[in-house]
Amino acid sequence: MSAVLLDALLSHCPDIEPVLDALCWPGSSVPETERVESLAALIKELIHKPLPEPVRSRLALRLQAVVWDQCVPLLKSLSSESISSHGRQQVLHAVCGLLGVCVGQCSVDSLEKLVTVALPAFSPPDSDVDQPHLDLDVATELLGVLLSSQKISESPPLALRALSCTLSSVKEVSEAQASKIIVRIWFASLKSSTEERRADVLQHIWEDLLGWHERQHTAAVTARALLCLTALSDHLFSTWERNTPIQGQEWRPKPDPRESRAFFGVVQAGLQHRDNVSRKRALYLLKRCVSLAEVVDAAVCVRDPGGFG
After folding, report:
1. In whole angstroms, what is the distance from residue 122 CA to residue 181 CA?
2. Which is the most buried residue in 19, 52, 235, 240, by most CB within 10 A?
3. What secondary structure letter does DSSP report for 305?
4. Do residues 57 and 105 make contact, with C-beta atoms less than 8 angstroms apart?
């Protein structure tokens, strides 16, 4: 729906409720992509339009209904429907766009409930639970939208809880699925975090990956740890201050690969790995580490054996 058409529609419709009703769909059906996109465009326009407070309050309630009566049932349908892959991806992209518009107006409680909808897909199946869950691809897209929202900054523990679940999953799934989780979820979380919280997110991922590699020193674990660390290299080897102040807390250290024995343990195992891609990733990380040391004019100085850096 074009901006010109939206302006004309809103200027000639004093009551927008019937238009919203017309664009919504039964929760059990899979709508056309254009219908979902039109609803998202209309809601986005309404959010930015000056509205009387009573109207805005009704709109907020309506957005909650769109999330739970349209978006969530549609995501569950996309996890189970045997529609074509191309058509599924188009509708999934559209409904995630609609959710992205709506969640910024939702409460933190609603955001937490949405995270709860996504998280079971990142955990081993529970035979005692009969409720249908989202499949991993759909849940990844949903969680990426939620962690991209500025609203998530109001609940850092919720973001870290979601990250913890994805860290467990990224160790078990295929490399393609792991890469998608990293790009869609981890990058979204880092991008939406304030500078105060970005160090916490990085440190959380860093300690989990290095601790995992130290506990399970296998070729498969080395390869997966190298994939994750290489994907995060721009964040790990950036030159922004290592210590970031967090309000009400002591300064939080940013992970420093130059001082981490555990990190160099991953790199060393990677350089000796039988897989050529893993060897290349290990060499790349080593070069990035040396380059960082040159930029900050500091030596590589590994700390005690028990530290992650």
Report:
1. 10
2. 235
3. T
4. no
Can you give the pLDDT at residue 93? 94
Q: Give the mean model confidence (pLDDT) for residues 232-253.
A: 61
Q: Phi and psi at residue 176, in whole multiples of 5°?
A: -65, -45
Place of tokens 């809880």: 161
pTM of the model: 0.83
pLDDT, position 174: 94
Continuous H helices in 174-302: 175-181, 187-192, 195-215, 219-231, 233-236, 261-271, 276-295
Helix (H) or strand (E) holding 34: helix 33-48
Distance separating alpha carbons of residues 227 and 218, to the nearest angstrom = 14
Q: Of 252, 251, 264, which Cα lies nearest the Cα of 304? A: 264
Above 70 in pLDDT, residue 300?
Answer: no
Q: Name the residue among 68, 180, 62, 177 with its Cα closest to residue 113.
A: 68
Enter the DSSP assignment of 123: S
Mean pLDDT computed over 117-140: 77
Residue 184's nearest CA partner among 98, 255, 100 is 100
Give the separation between CA 136 and CA 140, rounded to whole angstroms. Answer: 6
